[in-house]
Write a structure and sequence with these properties.
heterodimer, A: mainly alpha, 9 helices, elongated, disordered C terminus, B: mainly alpha, about 0% strand
Chain lengths: ~210, ~70
């Protein structure tokens, strides 16, 4: 497999899979890169969290360290279908997401059980001037949420859609993974839309690629 | 179509987060040079990152990392 890789990637795999000072040097260089990416990513997402100062740097260090562990543990899974660095950087990006999600609950500014339906128009960019066009749709949606969703789907809809809790924060809250939360919400969206179509609030037409 | 209707619309090709996260490095590297090719080769990932905010954010971060190196 290493033979199929670009030379730089093959060198990373060889040195990280080796031993002694050469491996230590590769680990140090990779950690430096991961830390740089983690810091940069935390800054890029500054509008999504309230982490700054030493805490931000601490989280960057944690993300880099955890990503390094994941990478070295999974290096056998690297197939050379991208540059090694692209594959490796993916792990530190995931770690940053995970840590931002967990951090949300240190200073949550929403109550999970609150249901403020008045926020919904603003969340979806529904202009007050056009209220006559979407008022009935929201009435139908609220009824569909009550009638169609399971308890878990409803809890996630309220938290994520009504209250604006980040999906990754719900992952941390429920101790699950992103796919499970997304799938639950995906099914909820599908059920809600089907209900709204059946009750005449939305037109039925085939899904489009770029709605 | 308003934002609520877009939110409710689901794409049957949507891979879900797990598969998209598995392929994100491959998709991102292709998208960094040719987004149309990325969409063509990985329609299920493309459909997913169009609908999933967290995975779209991870993609944006990975693209930024690729471009910075």
């Amino acid at each position: 497999m290493v033979d199929d890789m670009d030379p730089d990637s093959a060198e990373w795999v060889r040195t990280l899979g080796g031993a002694g000072p050469e491996r230590e040097d590769a680990l140090r260089r990779l950690h430096e890169s991961l830390l740089r990416i983690a810091r940069s990513e935390l800054h890029r997402r500054a509008g999504q969290h309230r982490i700054d100062g030493p805490e931000l740097d601490d989280i960057a260090h944690q993300a880099a360290a955890d990503a390094l562990l994941a990478i070295t543990g999974k290096i056998d899974q690297f197939r050379g279908d991208s540059k090694f660095t692209t594959w490796a950087f993916k792990f530190v990006i995931f770690e940053v997401s995970n840590k931002i999600g967990r951090h949300f609950w240190r200073h949550p500014d929403v109550a999970l059980d609150a249901e403020d339906w008045d926020r919904l128009p603003a969340r979806f960019g529904l202009a007050p001037a056009d209220e006559s066009e979407w008022r009935d749709l929201l009435v139908g949606l609220r009824r569909a949420v009550d009638d169609e969703l399971t308890e878990r789907q409803r809890a996630l809809f309220v938290a994520i859609v009504l209250n604006g809790v980040p999906l990754d924060a719900m992952v941390a809250r429920f101790g699950t993974n992103r796919n499970a939360i997304y799938k639950t919400l995906f099914d909820a969206r599908r059920k809600l839309r089907a209900n709204l179509v059946a009750n005449g609030y939305l037109d039925q037409h085939k899904p489009t690629r770029r709605p | 179509m308003n934002g609520l209707e877009r939110f409710l619309r689901t794409d049957p090709r949507d891979s879900g987060c797990e598969r998209a996260m598995e392929l994100l490095h491959v998709y991102a590297e292709l998208a960094a040079t040719d987004p149309v090719e990325a969409e063509l080769w990985y329609p299920e990932v493309d459909a997913h990152v169009t609908a999933c905010g967290p995975c779209a954010e991870d993609l944006a971060g990975l693209l930024a990392a690729i471009r910075a190196t």
